[in-house]
Amino acid sequence: MFKAINTELENMKTKIDLERSKIEQFYNDCLDNKKYVEYFRMKPVHEENLDLYEIGKSNLLCHYVMEQNVEETEQTADEYGTFGYKEPLFEYIYKLVDCGEFERALFHLKRAEKNKWSSYAYFDILDTIKSKYYNRPL
């Protein structure tokens, strides 16, 4: 005769929780199998799970940058939004410094500074560039 009001909310909460667990499971599967691109292409349905998805994407992008070379990372950066996340950007800058491409590293450091991503990694990279780039033999 009467329908309880909170059943619709419970159904929505159940769907959100189910999607949350699917995102977590898919993240773990992609991390174990190193199939990061599949996770990047996934989009959550519910807005409540967007934060969880973004955290997972940032972590997987960091792993992706670690495993790819500099050229491959740069080619796919726009497609996956690699430089829009703090940890993958700093990992990429570390790779640039290791390759000796200091000018490109400084360019990306300015991008991090513009986003106000100053942290230990930022200052560590800056010190490394100062010691390696400016003290190299001519």
Globular, elongated, flat, extended or rod-shaped: what is the shape?
elongated
How many DSSP E strands?
0
Count of helices?
7
| Uncertain parts | none
Number of domains: 2
The termini sit apart by 88 Å
Task: List the helices and strands in order.
Answer: HHHHHHH
**Strand percentage:** under 5%
The chain-level mean pLDDT equals 88
Query: Helical residue percent?
Result: over 70%
Q: Biggest sheet, open or closed, and with what strands and sense?
A: none
Structural class: mainly alpha
Explained architecture:
The termini are far apart. The model has no long low-confidence stretch (mean pLDDT 88). Helix 1 runs parallel beside helix 3, helix 5 (86-99) runs antiparallel to helix 6 and helix 5 runs parallel beside helix 7. The protein has 138 residues and is an all-alpha fold. The longest helix has 28 residues, at 6-33. The chain has helices at residues 6-33, 36-41, 50-67, 70-80, 86-99, 102-114, 120-133.
